[in-house]
Amino acid sequence: MALERLKDARCLFRSRRYDGAAYLCGYVLESALKACICERLHVSVYPETAFQGRLKTHELNDLLLLAGLNEELSPEKHLKNWFVVSDWKPDWRYRLPGIVKRKDAEDRIRVLGREVLPWLRAKS
After folding, report:
1. How far apart are CA 56 and CA 7, in angstroms?
2. Among 15, 47, 58, 122, which is least packed by CB within 10 angstroms?
3. Is pLDDT at 46 greater than 90 in this prediction?
4. What is the pTM of this model?
5. What is the pLDDT of residue 107?
6. Closest to 65 (Cα-Cα) out of 35, 37, 101, 99
7. In Å, how far are 2, 72, 80, 111, 117 from 75, measured between CA atoms?
8. Domain extents in the chain
9. How far, in Å, CA of 11 to CA of 49, rounded?
């Protein structure tokens, strides 16, 4: 699902819809992290209601921790890429259009597609 949403983000980018592309990139990362957590827990659906709902989060750094990957962010490579994509918040969908610049959206799509998603897939 994350790869399909990344394709959607690329379409939005090509249509100069940079805010939407950047928002969708955050959703892509959230989905990929939740898929990684599912893989590690050996479950087919993300267990949001488990542990009295404590897994119900959209915070990317919390999801990285739940996936057991926070210690694996290499300062030489992964940490820099993580900072490009990890500032996303779900309430970005309420922001006024025109906040995200072309380069920011482009960087997010590039880093997700070439670095972060392949790294997460390798860790699953």
Report:
1. 26
2. 122
3. no
4. 0.89
5. 97
6. 37
7. 25, 9, 7, 15, 17
8. 2-45+67-123
9. 33
